[in-house]
Amino acid sequence: MNFSNWAASIQQRTEIALGSALPSSQVSPTRLHEAMRYAVLGGGKRVRPLLCHAAGDLFKADQNSLDTAAIATELIHAYSLVHDDLPCMDNDVLRRGKPTCHIEFDEATALLAGDALQTLAFQVLSCRSLDVDLARQIEMLNLLATASGSRGMAGGQALDIAATNQQLTIAALELMHIHKTGALIRAAVLLGAHCGNATPAELDQLSHFATRLGLLFQVVDDILDTESSTATLGKTAGKDAAQNKSTYISLLGKDQAKEFAVNLLHESHSALTPFGDRALRLHELADFIAKRNF
Question: Least crowded by CB within 10 Å, which of 6, 51, 100, 117?
Fold first, then answer.
């Protein structure tokens, strides 16, 4: 199966799994459940589920277990987008080509939807259908919690808010994005590997890959933010510049930022060398992230 067909199949099974995990909008409280489904379903490239499945496939992991890990990660990602778009955060009105959750519903409902999506992620990951031993399942829950909290994604958002109207150093910008963007990307990769009972040495190698990939994702995102339209991106273009936030473009310039992206892609590929041809899908995903144009 070529990469496009493989990715489409994972995206489809992820959509089905998410639809099953999310509460029905017919169940009370109906408005909250409708907002949760609105925020999650029918959009997004599902990069984190793709990474989860690709890493799990390295170790011949059970596909149903990978679905569980993948949707837990995606639910955390979806909750973060709902909260990031709120007026008290980035105050955005467009996400994935449609009105943000607080615009479509209201701020209170969006806040609660994000809260509920976060807790649902851990409910999903703690279920007994996950085909790993209990000790590894606890380790996976700890991994996702750490990636989501103050030492991960939430901490990265705090650093991002604090950086408004300030010019960061490259080191400070990298620290922020390792937390805000990279932590959940790393979690997606490692959760997939855990589903296949990867060894500590293999997890360390994949952690290095995912860390470089997370930075690559952000550098490309910064480049696209200056080169693509709002219609193409499905979110407001030029938002960081308008809010006077440091980006790889503002600190390095476009040409040097693109060169940095090329170097990060090379480092990502190099980190997969010990896995040989088994890491084909991860190699392909790194290329996809580097070369995406939307």
Answer: 6
Can you list the positions of beta strands (E) in 63-166?
94-95, 98-99
Tally of domains within the chain: 1
- pLDDT tens, per residue, the chain with 294 residues: 899 999 999 999 999 999 999 999 999 999 999 999 999 999 889 999 999 999 999 999 999 999 999 999 999 999 999 999 999 998 999 998 899 999 999 999 999 999 999 999 999 999 987 889 999 999 999 999 999 999 999 999 999 999 888 889 999 999 999 999 999 999 999 999 999 989 999 999 999 999 999 999 999 999 998 887 666 666 666 666 667 788 999 999 999 999 999 999 999 999 999 999 999 999 999 999 998 754
How far apart, in Å, are the Cα atoms of 103 and each of 83, 93, 268? 12, 6, 38
Beta strands in the chain (DSSP E): 94-95, 98-99
SS3 state at 98: strand
Sign of torsion over alpha carbons 106, 104, 229, 267: positive
Q: What is the spatial distance between Cα 187 and Cα 48, in angstroms, rounded to a whole number?
A: 9
The amino acid at 185: I
Q: What CATH number did the domain enclosing 285 receive? A: 1.10.600.10
Q: Which domain holds residue 201?
A: 3-291
Number of H helices, E strands in the chain: 16, 2
Using an 8 Å Cβ cutoff, are 195 and 56 in contact? yes
